[in-house]
Amino acid sequence: MGVYRIDVTAIFATCGEGAGDVAAVTGYAVPMSVHSSSKRLLAPDITAMKGQAPIVALTSYHAHTAAIADRYCDFLLVGDSLGMVMHGFETTVPVPLELMIMHGRAVVRGAKRALVVVDMPFGSYEESPSVAFRNAARVMKETDCGGIKIEGGRRMAETIRYLVERGIPVMSHIGLTPQSVNVIGGFKAQGRTEKEWAAIVEDARQVADAGAFAVVLEALTEPLARRITAAIKIPTIGIGASTACDGQILVMEDMLGLSPRVPRFVKKFGKVGEVIEDAIKSYARHHRDEGASPHRRADVVSRAYRGDRRPVLRLPSGRRQPRHG
Ligand code: KIV
User: Fold this and answer.
1) Local structure of residue 178 (DSSP, 8 states)
2) Which of 236, 278, 276, 237 is nearest to 256 (CA)?
3) Ligand 1 near 81 CB (within 6 A)
4) Ligand 1 in reach of 151 Cβ (< 6 A)
5) What is the pLDDT of residue 7?
6) Is 218 labeled as catalytic in the residue annotation?
């Protein structure tokens, strides 16, 4: 039996028009930014989107936010930025492979449709193509993700070719490469003068020729991002690199308004930090100042204390399990 999938992207490509045409072809009104298909996207699906539809991506580090972002994004990146965003490191350099695997698993469990790409952390791939393969294969096996990302242009081309030839889809990352922050001397925009452009365009050419399925361009000027996007056949995914790219990615916590410090280019689409603070303030006030119960149904908990063994939490699958804590 075949698996049926309404591929909105393909319908757009056929019609060359907007949502009205989608509705005309499918008979369904498809909201513009919500995905309706359920089959998991693969790396070649992302490559095929170049020139067809803008690629939407976010970072994600946990199952619940992955489940939400999955409805709107083409791919989710388990970025090593999680070291700074979630674990309080100053840079991404200290992030261990095990942490990437743990968060990668959570995101794969949460996302059903989007391609999940896991970042290879500093020190896990630079030494040689075979070291990179051993660690990348471990990430793929232990997380079930659909691809990995490595930083570096032409210096990583041989490794990219080696990995792709052995079954590992690779996303490249050029421009500002945060794992090199100690060499660059800070999180600085790249290609600021025109004489630096040729080298960065060459980086993009070489990673594309080596078989990368897409390339992240971080902190590059608009004309340079435009030049690279026109020069290569794989999609460019911009972060602080203008709308000239084929797709965009942001760190989810930055665009949600949750991160205390964000790069200057980040546009905030929410005030989640404020929402969390309001909720915690009201919980504390409720409990400390008003002496009220923090439970919606205090009777459920007191019932349990009376020896009633009925569960206080029903799992979505219908299985019954007592709530811990
Ligand atoms: O680690 C990360 O989140 C990234 C994105 C900034 C592209 O590499």
Assistant:
1) G
2) 276
3) yes
4) no
5) 42
6) yes
CA–centroid distance, 136 to ligand 1, in Å, is: 17
Give the tokens for residue 284: 């504390």
Residue nearest to atom 8 of ligand 1 (CA): 79
Percent of the chain scoring above 90 in pLDDT? 72
What is the bridge-based pairing of β-strands 75-78 and 236-239?
A: unpaired
Among 126, 127, 165, 218, the active-site one is: 218
Assigned token pair, 160: 């990219």
pTM metric for this prediction = 0.84
Cα dihedral 257, 258, 263, 269 in deg (nearest 10)? -20
- Dist. CA 132–CA 160, nearest whole Å: 9
β 313-314/320-321 pair status: antiparallel
Contact 236, 204 (CB under 8 A): yes
d(CA 141, CA 272): 34
* 3 state DSSP class of 56: strand
Amino acid at position 305, single letter? Y
**What gap in Å lies between CA 297 and CA 283, rounded to an integer?**
15
Which residue of 81, 91, 120 sits with most ligand 1 atoms within 8 Å of its CB, as the best mutation to test the pocket?
81
Query: For all residues of the chain together, what is the average pLDDT?
Result: 87
State the pLDDT confidence band at 325, using cuts at 50, 70 and 90.
very low
Would you say residue 31 has pLDDT above 80?
no
Tell me how far the alpha carbon of residue 251 lies from the centroid of ligand 1, in angstroms: 7
For 132-145, write each residue's pLDDT tens digit: 999 999 999 999 99
**Ligand 1 neighbour 58 (Cβ under 6 A):** no
